[in-house]
Write a structure and sequence with these properties.
By secondary structure, this protein is an alpha+beta fold. The protein has one domain: Glutaredoxin, CATH 3.40.30. The protein is 24% helix and 39% strand. The protein contains two helices and four strands. A four-stranded mixed sheet has the order 2-1-3-4, covered by helices on one side.
């Protein structure tokens, strides 16, 4: 059985760090392959995040679903 892939987009703010900690704690890593992307340092991934429907960080994209997990910063602040 293959794992579901998920991408967690974040910046360095406390809201993002708390959300990342929760995602790591609660996602079943035997079922989900999680990639964490820090958009403050990986600006080349901003367009990818926008295409996935990310409007603000922190956000989790899993399958074709984008989940906004609180509000740390809009993507426009990371450009």
């Amino acid at each position: 059985m293959s794992k579901t892939t998920a991408t967690f987009y974040r910046a360095g703010c406390p809201v993002c760090l708390d959300a990342e900690s929760a995602v790591n704690r609660y996602l079943d890593q035997t079922k989900v392959a999680l990639e964490v992307v820090h958009l403050g340092t990986a600006k080349q991934r901003l367009l990818e995040a926008e295409k996935a429907g990310v409007k603000s960080v922190p956000a989790l994209v899993i399958g074709n679903q984008t989940l906004h997990l609180n509000f740390g910063a809009p993507l426009s602040a990371l450009k």
